[in-house]
Structures are given as structure tokens and as C-alpha cells.
Amino acid sequence: MSPKRQSLLPFFLILPAVIFFLIFFALPLISGIQTAFTTPEGELTLANFEKIYGKSFIKAVFNTLSLVAIIIPIQLALALVIALLVNTRLFGTSKFLFICAIPIALSEIVAGIIWLSIFTEKGYLNVMLHTLGFLKQPTIYLSYEKPATLFMTIALTEIWRATAIVMLIILPGLQMIHKDYFDTADIFGASRLQKLRYVTLPMLKPTIRTSLIIRTVLAFQMFAPVLVLAGRAFPVLASETYRIQFFTRNIHLAAAYALIIMVISTAFVLFYMRSLRTRWSA
Question: pTM for this one?
């Protein structure tokens, strides 16, 4: 192979990835942004954003941010605990990992239906409490009159369904930490808590950052569990985008909603990149 062809080889190797990115990411993104800022006649406008701004939009933003603020820290903590337990390699940890990873194999709508069967009026929770004598009549948990219960149910569903995503990112990062670091900490008499604080967590910072970015972006796309458990009684940004697109058939308003989701997600990503950057990646 000639030196000239050899110098072009890296560009040919990444060409399929570049083409894939352009077709499935860049072009739809440009098209979506253009749709959000145009009228059906093709004129530039900000009217789409003015139309979506209102009581339902503010409520959807508040509900989405509230869920993200509750779900993400809990999932990160649970994922870290599970990863630490699995990393001990004690007897039964492989089975424990398999059980913890089961929810990741389920679709969002299936997870929503499972938790609907628990919290519905004739669901497993009411049946169990009635059998144990704690309830005389079924309790209605999923009602627009009980927004706190709706919020709790959706949060529990997402925590159960998607904690495995974070765990499966953290676990390989934990296993890549070299044993020498912990041996050195043992020489200096560090306790388990000190090794977690001063060795494990700092070494895991890039992995934690990656898991937070992926999970937060996916959290802003949360849709099916909300639709199954609450319908329109608990609007979030993704469900409002779906409603506008498929019920009002206004692609321009839906694109404006989608663009807002992207902007907020990007802001979170930049925050994670800034606050969790390491010394060698600064």
C-alpha cells in the first residue's frame, strides 16, 4: 500500500460511522430544528414556542424536572451499591446480578403495565393489604386527585426499570480499578469507607459521569410508564410531545416541544461534563 493510501486509511475506516451519524442523527436534527422554527407555509417564526407556553407546558416541565431530580440520585446510589456487591465476587453474586438486570430486558410499556397491576384498584397491593387485614376496602392510588401518589408510582417504576442501566455502566468501571490502589490503601490503614471515598469514587468519576449523561437523557424521554400509569393526569415533556403530534397533528408544535427537551438535556450534559471532569480530562 502506498504511503498516500495508508494515510487515507483511517478516514475510510470511520466513513461508515460518519455516514450513519449524518443520516440518522444530523439530518433529522436539522430537520427538527427547522420544523420548530417554521410555519406550515415554511416561514420563519417563534409562534410555535409561544403557543406551547402555558399552564400545561409549565406543569410538564415541573413534573419532568421533579422526576429527574428524584430518580437519578436514587438510581445512581442503588446502582453503585449493587455494583459494589457484585464486585465482591462472593458466592451467588452472578445470580444476584442476573436478577438485578432482568428489568432492563423489559420495554417501558411492559414495566408500566407490571406496576399498574400492582397499584390499580384491584391490584396486588390492595389484595395483599386486604388479605393481611390492613384494608377493609381498596385504596385508589392512581387518580388525578392524588398527584403525589402518581408521582411516587411513576418514580418507583422508573427506579425499578432503569437502575440496571446505570449499574451495567458502573460495574465495568469498578472492575477496571486496579487492585494495587486498594492494596496501597490497606498499607496505610484505610477503612472500607475511606477506600470507597478516596479510591473508588474518584476513580469512578468518568464512569459515573457517563452513566449520569446516558440516564438523564433517557429520563427526559420517559413516556410509556407515565402514559400507562397516569395518562394525562401527570403530563411530562415527552408525553405532551406525543399528544401534540398524534392528537392535534401539529408537527411544528411537537418539534418545538422536542427541541426544548433537547436543550434541557444538553444543559444537564454540559453540567455533568463541567462538574465531574477529571484532572486528566480537563
Answer: 0.86
